Amino acid sequence: MKRISGLFIRRVKVQTALGLLSRMQLRFEGFQLQKAGDLVAIPITHPPSAEDENTLRKGLGSFQIQEAFFEPISTGPRNLREAAQGKIPVDLIPRLPRSFDIVGDIAIIELPPLLQGYSTEVGKAVVRMNPHVRLVLSKSGEVTGRFRTRALNALTGTGSMETVHREFACSYHLDVSSVYFNPRLSHERRRVAEQVTQNEVVVDMFAGVGPYSILIATLQPAVKVYAVDINPSAVRYLKDNVLANKVADRVVPMLGDAREFSKEELKGAANRVVMNLPSDAEHYLDAALRILKSGGGVVHFYQFTSRQVGSELLKTQFRTSVLTQKREVKSFNYCKVVREVSPRRVQVALDAVIV
What we know:
This protein is α/β, with parallel strands linked by helices. It is built from ten helices and 17 strands. It folds into three domains: 2-70, Alpha-Beta Plaits, CATH 3.30.70; 80-159, 2-Layer Sandwich (GMP Synthetase, Chain A, domain 3), CATH 3.30.300; 182-354, Rossmann fold. It has helices at 14-23, 50-60, 80-83, 119-129, 186-193, 211-219, 232-244, 258-263, 285-291, 311-324, and strands at residues 2-10, 34-36, 39-43, 64-70, 101-103, 106-109, 135-139, 152-157, 162-167, 170-175, 201-204, 224-229, 251-255, 272-275, 297-306, 329-342, 345-354.
């Protein structure tokens, strides 16, 4: 990845922007466009001059110029099946995973049992697809325990499990074996962060290494974010990331159980609470409601559920749980699947306005 200037524009204006940037010789060829919620970032050769900005504004209306990380356009294999051709038996090619995660320069893949004997070959195929990857790991268990970690085995590559992951102009130092981090939630994090307004107090109850907290503070400088996590390793990296991303005046790392902090230190503190613990968030809803200001606020709630469970049932269950804590749901601003966990299981995001 390369950090260069980008023009952020709404999706409906992308084709117009591409043509205009090319004519102005500002388009940086050879790098992929980056999606950021409703926006698309187009790599440009250099920040435009005042005259160029006027030309762009006439043709595009509103836009933003800021640095971001862009992936070079790959000329290698288009997918893992293509990369593994000739390296593993033909009858096993269909068994290869269709996707895997990349965190910094580390790839993490879920390897089916039938492919265990070809783990090195699969790992090398991943690197052929993604030359910047230095280490390929396979999942050897589920995310478990209070610290939300999983066992990982090296398939190919060198070095430690520590890396730096870059996302929306923010960087996150982490060790994939000792903290929880999901790169597939990047657009969800952006969606939430873009809702935060000036002078809000936000409590990120399960902050990990800080992807929600730091992005919120980066996009909205006039906020205070309390980033809580019970995992000492996560909080150590969180503190480093707060400094690296220059948001130490806005983000307060806190080591401990969010439930305990809700009783005194953070009681009634927040306009907005982020509950990114889909495996157990429902058991922390009472704590989240204590953290909200008495006048109310917004809760970003995440939950694992069956694909067959409809949004109306989820809303009803959430509303009932809130009522047991003597608060009420004024409205739901959002309720959608944000990722698939397994063929029958999904993660749902629910934004609720609480009074």
